[in-house]
């Protein structure tokens, strides 16, 4: 896993090359909505894209995580299915439902049943490398290809290409300092309950971090979002005392935070400091949304790997997930 995290900037570069070489055409009408369907490491990219395109794409973009699709899905829907293996059962069920609704379905996958469906039905797809067998370590491949699909569907201009290239340069430039910061965060989270707080603009990045802590470090964490949490969860910072004594809070800040959200964070920090063992802050680097998102993603991936080492666990294995899938396959 450490080698895969190390290669994230190169993965983004390779993903750009794949996207540029992809020959994808859409013959359908102009789309009135976009649905991105995927689970886990293959699906979180859809959430990041949803945030990224909120002020760029003029039609609704939603993320679908489950077996069914919304009732509005139909002929004017661009339905993007993302599954690293191509065999994710929830995504396959959603794809079949979207096909029955005559949506325009396209795919990002390394193979499996989704690739078969795409090829047999002459549907647009972009194939990504599957050698690593680690979907959560291939976010760069899937996310970038979904951006290319939106571009080929004439919903997104090509500005994202410049932003991804700038992100690659930033990650390479900050490689050393990212590891140093990540190691310090991992030590702060060791034997603690990480409490991750972020603005609504970057919520998917914090959720991705939570997923990586779970899968790589085999450790629980908690995520909530400003400003919503200041209307409810802040009141919960009273009991039980022994739980908060083991909490390590991280406030994740970016230049995309609303000024009033920043104020809420600063005021709420005082509540955290009265209860939690550690209260930390991190500021995203970069000039654009994608630069800041990729900076945080790469940093947090390193945190999860270093935390796995501190927890003396193998970040490559996901025994509970594999066991669950095995039991489901028997039913």
TrEMBL record:
Q: Which InterPro entries match?
A: Glu6P/Mann6P_isomerase_C, SIS_dom, SIS_dom_sf
Q: Which GO terms describe its biological process?
A: carbohydrate derivative metabolic process; carbohydrate metabolic process
Q: Report domain SIS positions.
A: 22-161
Carries keyword Isomerase? yes
Q: What GO terms are given for molecular function?
A: carbohydrate derivative binding; glucose-6-phosphate isomerase activity; mannose-6-phosphate isomerase activity
Keywords on this record? Answer: Isomerase
User: Mind telling me which Pfam families this protein's record contains?
Assistant: bact-PGI_C
List, alphabetically, the NCBIfam families matched.
Answer: G6PI_arch, PRK08674.1-2, PRK08674.1-6
Family per record: Belongs to the PGI/PMI family.
Q: What is this protein called?
A: Bifunctional phosphoglucose/phosphomannose isomerase
Query: What species is given as this protein's source?
Result: Pontibacter diazotrophicus
């Amino acid at each position: 896993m450490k080698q895969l995290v190390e290669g994230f900037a190169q993965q983004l570069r390779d993903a750009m090359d794949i996207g540029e070489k992809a020959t994808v055409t859409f013959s359908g009408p102009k789309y009135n909505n976009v649905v991105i369907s995927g689970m886990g490491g293959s699906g979180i990219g859809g959430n990041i894209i949803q945030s990224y395109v909120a002020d760029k794409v003029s039609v609704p973009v939603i993320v679908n995580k489950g077996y069914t699709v919304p009732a509005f899905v139909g002929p004017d829907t661009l339905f993007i299915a993302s599954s690293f293996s191509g065999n994710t059962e929830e995504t396959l069920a959603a794809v079949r439902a979207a096909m029955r609704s005559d949506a325009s379905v396209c795919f990002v996958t390394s193979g499996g049943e989704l690739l078969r469906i795409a090829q047999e039905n002459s549907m647009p797809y972009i194939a990504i490398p599957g050698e690593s067998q680690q979907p959560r370590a291939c976010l760069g491949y899937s996310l970038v290809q979904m951006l290319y699909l939106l571009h080929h569907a004439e919903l997104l201009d090509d500005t994202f290409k410049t932003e991804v290239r700038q992100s690659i340069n930033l990650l390479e430039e900050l490689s050393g300092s990212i590891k140093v910061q990540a190691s310090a965060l991992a030590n702060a989270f060791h034997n603690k309950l990480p409490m991750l707080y972020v603005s609504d603009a970057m919520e998917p990045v914090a959720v991705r971090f939570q997923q990586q802590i779970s899968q790589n470090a085999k450790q629980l964490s908690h995520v909530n979002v400003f400003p919503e949490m200041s209307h409810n969860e802040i009141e919960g910072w009273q009991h039980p005392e022994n739980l908060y004594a083991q909490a390590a809070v991280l406030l994740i800040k970016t230049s995309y935070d609303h000024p009033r959200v920043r104020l809420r964070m600063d005021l709420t920090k005082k509540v955290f400091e009265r209860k939690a063992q550690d209260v930390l802050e991190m500021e995203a680097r970069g000039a654009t949304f994608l630069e800041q998102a990729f900076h945080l993603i790469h940093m947090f991936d390193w945190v999860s790997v270093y935390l796995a080492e501190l927890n003396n666990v193998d970040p490559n294995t996901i025994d509970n997930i594999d066991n669950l899938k095995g039991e489901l396959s028997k039913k």
